[in-house]
Hints:
Chain A is mainly alpha-helical. Chain A has 14 helices and no strands. In chain A, 41% of the residues are buried.
Amino acid sequence: MDLRTYIIRRLGLMVFVLFGILVITFIVSHVIPADPIGAILGPQASPELVEKIRREWGFDKPLHEQFFDYIYKVIRGDLGRSIKTNNPVMEDLLYFFPATIELATAAIIVAIVIGIPLGIISAVKKDKWPDHISRIFALMGVSMPVFWLGLLLLFVLYYKLGIFPGPGRLDPGIPEPPRITGLLTLDSLLTGNFEAFINTLWHLALPSFVLGYYASASIARITRTALLEVLTQDFIKAARSKGLAERVVLFRHALRNALIPTTTVIGMAYGSLLEGAILTETIFAWPGLGRYSTGAFLSVDFMAVMGSTLLIALVYSLANLIVDILYAFLDPRIRYA
Amino acid sequence: MKARDLALVLLLFVVGAVIGYFAAGPGKVTTVTTTVTTTVVQTATPTITTPTVTMRTPADTLIIAMDTSDAVSLDPARAYEFTSCFVTNQLYDKLVDFELPNLIDVKPEVAERWEVSPDGMTWTFYIRKGIKFASGNPLTADDVVYSLQRVVKLKQTAYSVLEPFLKTPDQIEKIDDYTIRIKLNKTVAPSFFLSVLTFTTSSIVDKKVVEAHEKDGDMGSAWLDDHSAGSGPFVLEKWDRESQFVLRANPYYWKPGQPYVKTIIIKHVAEPTDQLLLIQKGDADVATDLTPDQIKQLEGQPGIYIVRAERLHNVYIGMNVAVKPLDKEEVRDAIRYCIDYDGIVNGILKGAAIKWQTVIPKGLLGANPKTPYYKDVNKAKELLAKAGYPNGFTIELTTPPTYPQIDIATKIQADLAECGITVNIVQMTASMMYEKYRKQGLQMVLAGWGSDYPDPDSNAMAFANYRIRQLAWRNSWYDDYAADLAEKASIEMDTKKREQMYLNLTDYILDHGPYVMLYQTVAQQAVRDYVKNWLPDPTFYYLDLSKVRKG
């Protein structure tokens, strides 16, 4: 099977996966005994008003009718309206998702830049002190709660030393660039607003480090393991006995083969970063998908819950697919079936 | 292996030391003694004192760090949450308003004077001439009539405030360009109706601007969600959801010299620790959602003062009378004698509450300061024995899974256990809890009740009158004496008599009602010392930011 057919087939499968997720989230969000209208109206509202607004939103209809209404809308690209924001969910997602894409991308870059070199050092200096240090570093990354690390960094680097800016995406004094993509870095570059660009990068630094550090741990560990395994194989012995420099053996022969599992981990890590990191987003006052979807869950905002779940599922499936495709570039022997 | 273990131990030391240092807080470094710590302290933070008091934020811009996640809409017909009402109040004028700290005497705003018929049903308002909207349009009777009718026609969330008096749009009519008349559908105490009119629902919108943004007959609602069309001191420049509100001074504002600050930025900062850092650093001028411990930490620090306001918000336990043995008055009394009120107010809430045991909060007409209940296990056990439950019983207490409710529920569980009552705590998100509560489906519930406007009616009716299907009904307390008294008080034209009725009613509920009134909330906000006129606001939406100055 060639790559194109493979991709088409995978995309086809994805439609089923997404549909399944829709069904499940619809059922789960509608059978729990919670009342989104009541939540918004608060304890004061009269039962008549609650009923009236519930009718307006169509929550008085039978469940199957609501379901088919919803599916019909989704097919036409309409994810319904959020009860909380009163906006189309699609519009909300387009508003919140870019902030998360920006943060997740910066974080995955940090994770790769930290994780892969760390993994390589660990493997090369196996069981020597660089390996131990790298292990401790990685251990700290996964075991330190992100909210704690985030607050600690803010306390030291913002409050005490004033090197980095406080929470938020941009200083209050700096006018926001006009919204084109929603990615502040890109928008400020596109509009030639370098002050905003530098400021955005500055604001990105701490949250992306916190998230990236967390993700780097697994990347470092998997790189180490994979590299160690490859280094014991015959073709490495052959390469060494050919008299190749260790540097060439390591980077040209071993690393490329070791990167396949690493790619999987990176892809999955990026996928999960794109879900929106609620804790990091809260601490750094980052208006991303994590905050939106958590808010939606807490107020039982059905449409927003289903919309964001669908988006997350889509992102995950795409990340998976891209990882699978990348395998072929890393290892041309891999065939798709 | 050994090297790794050693490294791990070392790591734990370092982490522990760092935690220890930061937990100790600024200015307390000397209390941390281990050598490891000292090194960390020296390398990480050479300076420990609070940064010097200079204004870091621009002099004409007020920056408020606030948790705004509750905000839904800034349309006065929909705005019904704390944040939405707080912001809406800066964007619009109302017919009448309260001027803090006085929440008893209503002051003229758009209406310069008014008359009410002897039966309390027909109101005439005379509108001040010369007020302009931010668009430059003059404000006339047409706008007032349109604004109030709009709320009645749209029947959105905030309509519940006006619903009891205004059922149809034709109850509001224009007499001439600067006079309007409102006919209520029933007699209402004058102070009560005026009080209701101060809520943001009655904001006057610019009819021409709103009509220009109408879409599918929504009377401009979708547009007004995140735009403003008012005559208030500020105009909404933008609302980036989950990020910030930016307000700019209205050039046409009619009160001379105001607003004093030209820009207000309300930054959405959900995490209290962030708010603490921002206010300490001086990157925010006001922080509104600090924890009691953080407030303690800030107290006495140079450059910051604390503003405290007793909120019109009570926290109570509802006891569903339909559930045995809560049907017995002795049992309900026994529960009230099991609880350590001071422990909750001082131990858990640490200054963020005052003990208050009656259903009308302190600060309102008819507020009853009696606190007859205190922890007395023997008395409680006697009452239980008298009711036929000498060995106690088992009951559920439902609470939202949030601070401080969980801590309070746990404390109550422990308190009641001393009296022999076993409490099972059931946690539910607020949306699930209210759904069940509305259907009388809970046994005991830990909940709160806030007044929308400073009049005792909303509390009295909710807690006393089962006929309106609010708190009394949800706890299956069908008491006609209490219900009648609440209804009579709401139409009493004589304020003195009305006050006495509320005192009688609160006394009655204190003894017979299905509630344990735990406390009244106190809001504590941290303000930088160069910010003037940030007044304590019992409601959150009377604070007029046009009077706030910097420097």
